[in-house]
Predict the 3D structure of the following.
Amino acid sequence: MIKIRREDVFLASFFIPALILLFIFQLIPTVWAIQFSLTDMALIGKKFLNPSYVGLMNFQRLAEDRIFWKSVGVTFEYCLISLMWRFTLGLIFSLYLTSKIFKGKTIMAAVFLFPWITPGVLKPFLWISVLDTKYGTANRILQLLGLPAQSWVYERAMLSAIAINSWAGYAFPMLVLASALTSIPKEYYEIAEICGASRWYRFTRITLPLIKFPLVLCAIMIFKEDIDDFTYVYMLTDGGPNYRTELLSLYAYHKAFVYYKLGYGSAIGLVIAAIAFILGLAQLKAAKF
Amino acid sequence: MSTLEKALAIISIILAIGWGSTIYYYTAIYRPTPTIITITLETKAGLWADFIRRMEVIPKFEDRMWNEKGVLVRVRMITAPHRGYADKVIADFAAGVAGDVVWMKSDPLPEMVESGWLLDLTPYVQKWDDWSQFYPSMQELGTYNGKVYAIWVETAPQVVYYRKDLFKAAGLPVPWQPKNWDDIIEAARTIKERLPEVDVPLYAINPVLAAIGAGEKIYDPEDGKFIVKSERLLEVFKFFYDASIKYSVTPPAVKLEKWDTRKLFQDGELAILVDGTWCWSEKWGPGMPYEIKNREEVVGYAHFPSSGKPGAPQYATYTGGYGYMINSKTKHPDLAWELLKDLVAPDIAAEWNYPTSHLACRKDAVIGKYAEDEFLKWATTTLEYSSLLPRVEGFSTWKKLLDDVIKDYLLAQGTTPEECMNIFAEKAKEELGADRVKALPPYSL
Amino acid sequence: MRGEKSRLSRSLAEPGIKIIGYIVLAFMFIYILNPFVWLFLTAFNPHGSPFLELPENLALDNFIAIFVGTTKMGAAAHSIYMATWIKNSLIVAATTMFIVIVTSAMAGYALSRLDFPGKNLFMLGLLLIGFMPSLTKLLPLYKLCIIFGFVNNLFGVGIIIASGTLPTQIWVMKGFFDGIPRELEEQAWICGCNRLTSLFRVVLPAAGPGVMVVALMSFLSGWGNFTVPLILIRSEDLYPISLGIASIFTHHPGEVGLVVDYGVVAALSIIYMIPSLIIYYVVRRHLLKIRLARMEVR
């Protein structure tokens, strides 16, 4: 008995390095930021020198802030559609990768993973060359085909941002899905076939339930990414015509670094974290983790 | 290897690393060093830092300090990329790690002073002969609440560029100096009529410039309020409305979709462009990405005129600047000041401003190639009428709101000028607070 | 049985589906690759522009400029320290990789083999700990880094980036360890190894693929990260490539294309991507073995 417990302690000590890193560089800044959200601190100006505690006033203001609520809607739109696309593309590509009928897997895999491997700094620039109204590749091709040029960077900014995000982000779900798909034992399918199951039945009753957990976890990770990163909307419209593309994370950035209201911006950040947290929990509950 | 041996191996490695780093750490502390004073210079990476290195400002400064004062100084350069540079500097100050001497733009100066980040340079400046060489407007630009906080190296006003070849083809007079906004719209409409292949006859959407051109004060220092509704402000909205909606000489998409106006101008798809003086060489100059061959024959320039309504000045422009400030927390203010003086020296300023078509901020920097450049000679005359933007907390918000309203309402939806002004006043009241905004008669909030 | 199987594979191999499949694939390729067309064309174009143009002549000018050190921007010329940037990026990426591998392997192993009350909550907590948007944590993180001396320190940058990707990587490693049956370890115990030895001799080699996948992902993180070096690095000779590109290339809403030689930037970007491609190539076979969670049998 004692031997096992000592071993368990030894094993538990394996957590220590990771916990130290996470505690210092993730938890402490989070707590600090929460503290900011309870003040009216500004990044610059008089309120930088003398911030004062205002308790939950920032959050009260948030509740009355018209733009905040609009931003919540925008964020949900962006995140949900992105999530759907990333998974759809990931699924399609993973099916290609794991299928037996398509050749050239190495080339496929290399091409599919190309956007994933591109460093983040490059992605906006690559897409500006495509989406620009006058000189971008997309519109030039459209005009060649006799179709009207579209305003990708303005009218359809949300669509473009989602398209770029999906382009950059399908790789992780693809890998997770492909891995999950290849690990389902063939026997399950064979048995189902013998019992006369249709392809659809096999998909919904065997494949889906088995990859449920990796899918949900992947979805949580993706959601966390999308809710955090505003690079694409920033470069396209910086919040869009009348806040139509103002993601919550972008709104927090604007409030904190453009209007210098650090306290308010931190409050928004906290709300973002809370939303993501609750949604994550809900997803896990739904999948009966 | 048995477990014991393995454990011993691990322990000895850890001990070795620990011992080694302890020794290194202690010798680093106790290594006898001559008293070298280090001061830091913060500037933009790439072009800017390279320039300082090319001009050998730092070695010459270090020599000068040794020879004149017997002090050993080492200057360390801190750099940040151009992208997001101002935000980085602000973050550095906020975290307390900004350099001793910092290259920065003029816009956030008031807020930075309010935060207590900048050293008051007034005592130094009063004893400095060269100070009188700086243009009064530049001295003013670096002053806040009566004290001097920054010395500028470059400044770049806005001017009107026009394509002489397109003007000639449309039968418009060259050289051209519009007297008021109606002249500009007239010329644009002529271009649109006679040269329909020019996609964008005019691009002049610079709200702040127009506000100054209308003669609007923007901020009243007596009661500390921003003006958000007035006849002159209405002129601004009308000007853009005429250009974009009424006469369609400025397609809204240009601003909304961020068309590359410099490239359009290069390609001859844009005939009249309001932009900064730096475009002359940095965009259209030889070897540059948007190079225009025969630039002198093709590109014309003129002063930006006023609205022409009573109370408006003849010409209008505004200019910020980029220059050096000193960190209030510096441990060596005198040395920092000496370095600053070297960095803003006349020959350095001339050498920097000439290739980038910025204006020097001091009269004695008009030397060498800078002095001979026709464009720069003309551009310097703009300094005579250039206004200073209000330097108070909240102006950047005012500016952003104006820009937003013009983008989201006037350009996107074709909202009438009167309605736009109402919307602007509402938003300003919300963002800035009802006690910081006011309307001039005959309007009220 | 046989008949049914061949009916299935026959229907899958229907030429119709196959052709449609390839056509769809072709469109997907276009969607994926089209931005890179600009990249490659511009890199070899001595007069690059931010938009897709067919170059008048293809030349290696841009690549030469990068390695020789100057661009042809006339009076406003500036030099590019490509070799330095590559070295710095490598240091950052290697640091991130090393730290992530060691810490996530340890934590992942423990998570896989240890059972304790509240384990699920703990694993969830790990995942959700990084849920605060990075920008909100920016200023506190900056101050923290100053305290730790991470400012202007490439290793510090690596550590910060590592702590950011850690939650995901721990999950990935745990998944890989879960895939190594306990019987393997128990075998080793029977043969007289204790836990530690069995870890080194048996488990780690079997988890090789997992280490490789985590290595790739953490390398990509460290190699491509821009915001952390932006905050922490202040001397040009310590700039990683991401900062290097930003210092000669900028895109800000409202400001279109500043002082830039797009051809050089494109060339630089290609060079930027090469190490990622190399590591991907080494690791590619193992990418399909990621297991995020134990699969349940219904």
Notes: The mean pLDDT of chain B is 89. Chain B has 21 helices and 15 strands. The longest strand of chain B covers residues 37-44.
